[in-house]
Amino acid sequence: MPSHSVAKYIKETEHAARHLFAGVDECRGPLRLSMQLSRRNTVEEVNRCLDASQAYAGRFFSEATLCGSILQLAFMGLYLFPKNDTIPEDCKTLVKPLTNESPKNKAIQFCVGRRVHNIPIGLLIYAGRNQFNHWDDKSFNFSTTQVFDALRRTHNNNPFFDMAYELNFTSRVVKANHIVLNELRWNSYEAYEADMRAMLGEELPL
Questions:
Q1: What is the pTM for the complete model shown?
Q2: Would you give the DSSP letter of residue 29?
Q3: Cα(105)–Cα(23) distance, integer angstroms
Q4: Phi-psi map region of 82: left, alpha, beta (phi>0 left; psi -120 to 50 alpha)
């Protein structure tokens, strides 16, 4: 695909992406307030902190849904304009090799981008989007399962986050917000756009 098509995709999805990030920021408002109040020690501030924490908990699924939509936009960009057709050495445990029986593997084209916990962010997008779109499924494909297992092992010693990437809970939970905010660190549209342009081979304008 010519590079101007990449630029067109980014431009034509910018309005939607910016609104999604604005929605995520709004969802996280009570969380920021809670963190600020947690440093105080009056009874009133403690109660306000608890109220803010409850308000954020009530928005958690909305936040995850918005982040899932961000992953969908990123996924489609990488799907429409693939830049990779081989499995890098550091992805061989995350992506099945091609065989005569399986001559195609969509996950290969997502082995691009900067590494987070030694995982290309393209694969984080791929796995996060799949879990979001199929979060009620009983199982996931090989690469999605392997990426989430790698993330789970990475956070294994964190008592507050060690099970965040477990896929086999009886009650399924969307994990897109963990991927977008904690791993990709996309806290703004600009951070998202910079990574997308880098992965799609489209340089940021001077």
A1: 0.86
A2: H
A3: 34
A4: beta
